[in-house]
Design goal:
The chain is an alpha/beta fold and 492 residues long. 31% of the residues lie in helices and 16% in strands.
Length: 492
């Protein structure tokens, strides 16, 4: 008797691991580019997890902040699913070993970040939340008998039979390739910050899963919305930049221009804690007029304990944030768009599911609220996993199938050019002329590699949206109300 076909999950970050664990007892084959938490953007996340569990808070208040940050481009029903399940997500993470930071009296410690009207963010290990959560998830996955993990493989194709996705094509470290069959395929491959010259993501967070889904004919959604974190450590010449967490501003840090004046006073009612798209544009402008800095020296001797990741990154580059302002710059951080999916992760292609940053179910709208990304991965990963465990095996594959593969990769010089192009045209501030010029270049690059094809799809989506909205800011539409940093405010 043959073994049952597994659920194939591509990606070893928080969303993929949460789905894999929740799929038990269905067999899962988890495929990742790197072993453990290496290479996963989730492990780099310094922000925490937003959850309305503090006294006086509510899922409705969390949902309101999520939609305000997203410029009400969000799907309200999906937002309600996220915020209503946040407390349960935190409890589940605690159950598998995540030790969230606590106050001296033993209660959970809540912090405030940009776009939130109150302190509702839980952290683990200060600014090392992503690493701590990944550590617990990886350990749980290794102990789970229903999960088989294969690392150091690259998924570069999908297998379709009668219009249904039923497997993947993989390239092994030794250069060999093989076809793996499964009952369904889940893409949990993360974002695409690696396509930009400056990113807070690992370099290989390059949109590979999204590109693969688009090549197979899956419908995309909201590709134009790319969030730039306003405060990455400004290190000229580096591609992947250390993040300077937003929680530093929640703890009293201030953004300053080259003259030492406040960047955000008078720009938004929340000042330094305004939604990320607004702060990122302001920092972007300052960087072109002498630079931008984050002054958090008031933390003093508490800095290394409260923000160990940022502290070490600064010290590694000769900066002591206890006494010096930190030079910062915007960096490509999170893709609100992706493969269009429903609340259960179903794409438009039967048999193909997506979850986490590669997917777009409408929860983030035009601009993600701080500390909703790890939450999204857990909530919708677990929701998808619950569905996966009910899917029938389907038996051994029969009949003819076809393979859809990505194009080869761009070479190093072409990729460097594309990253610079995307930073210029698809950065925090855009214009029709720059986007049209970039489209011509992307079309030329698309003939050589899949990254060019994906970049072209993003630029085309940006050109189709003529007005400014959230992270999509059109400098040639400055008269738009949204372009000035305001959000529409329908009755809630």
């Amino acid at each position: 008797m043959s073994a049952p076909a597994p659920v194939i999950i591509v990606g070893g970050g928080i969303a993929g691991l949460s789905a894999a664990l929740a799929a038990a007892p269905a067999p899962v084959l988890l495929l990742a580019r790197a072993s453990g938490s290496r290479g996963a953007a989730s492990a780099l996340a310094q922000g925490g997890i937003a959850a309305a569990i503090a006294p006086g808070d509510s899922p409705q208040a969390h949902a309101r902040d999520t939609c305000v940050a997203g410029c009400f481009h969000n799907d309200p029903g999906i937002v309600d699913l996220l915020t209503a399940n946040a407390a349960d997500a935190v409890r589940w993470l605690q159950a598998i070993g995540v030790a969230f930071d606590r106050e001296p009296d033993g209660s959970l410690q809540f912090c405030r970040e940009g776009g939130h009207d109150r302190a509702r963010i839980v952290h683990a290990g200060g600014d090392a939340t992503g690493a701590k959560v990944m550590e617990a998830l990886v350990a749980a996955a290794r102990a789970a008998t229903h999960i088989e993990r294969r690392a150091d493989v690259d998924v570069d194709g999908l297998v379709l039979r009668d219009g249904h996705v039923c497997g993947v094509c993989v390239s092994n470290p030794d250069g060999t390739g093989e076809v793996l069959h499964g009952r369904v395929v889940v893409l949990a491959t993360g974002g695409l910050g690696g396509l930009f010259a400056q990113t807070s993501n690992p370099a290989d967070a390059d949109g590979n899963g999204l590109a693969l889904a688009l090549a197979a004919g899956a419908q995309p959604r909201d590709l134009e919305f790319v969030q730039f974190h306003p405060t990455a450590l400004a290190l000229p010449g580096l591609h992947s930049l250390p993040l300077v967490t937003e929680a530093l501003r929640g703890a009293g840090g201030r953004l300053l221009d080259a003259d030492g004046a406040s960047l955000m006073d008078g720009m938004h009612p929340l000042a330094d804690l305004a939604p990320r798209d607004i702060v990122a544009r302001r920092v972007w402008q300052a960087c072109r007029n002498g630079g931008a800095w984050l002054d958090a020296h008031k933390l003093g001797t508490a800095f290394p304990q409260r923000f160990p990741t940022v502290f070490q990154a600064c010290m590694n580059h000769g900066l002591d944030p206890r006494v010096q302002p930190i030079p910062v710059t915007p960096a490509a951080h999170f893709h609100m768009g992706g493969i269009a999916v429903d609340a259960d992760g179903r794409s438009s292609l039967p048999g193909l599911y997506a979850v986490g940053e590669v997917a777009c179910n409408g929860v983030h709208g035009a601009n993600r609220l701080a500390s909703n990304s790890l939450l999204e991965g857990v909530v919708f990963g677990r929701r998808l996993g619950a569905l996966l465990r009910t899917l029938p095996d389907g038996g051994q594959p029969r009949g003819s199938s076809r393979m859809v593969r990505r194009k080869p990769s761009l070479d190093a010089a072409q990729l460097d050019y594309l990253r610079a192009l995307m930073m210029q045209a698809m950065g925090p501030m855009r214009s029709g002329d720059t986007l049209r010029a970039a489209l011509d270049d992307c079309t030329e690059l698309a003939a050589s590699g899949w990254q060019g094809e994906l970049a072209r799809a993003l630029v085309e989506a940006a050109l189709r949206r003529g007005e400014s909205l959230g992270a999509h800011f059109r400098m040639d539409r400055e008269s738009d109300v949204l372009a000035q940093g305001s959000s529409p405010s329908p009755a809630w």
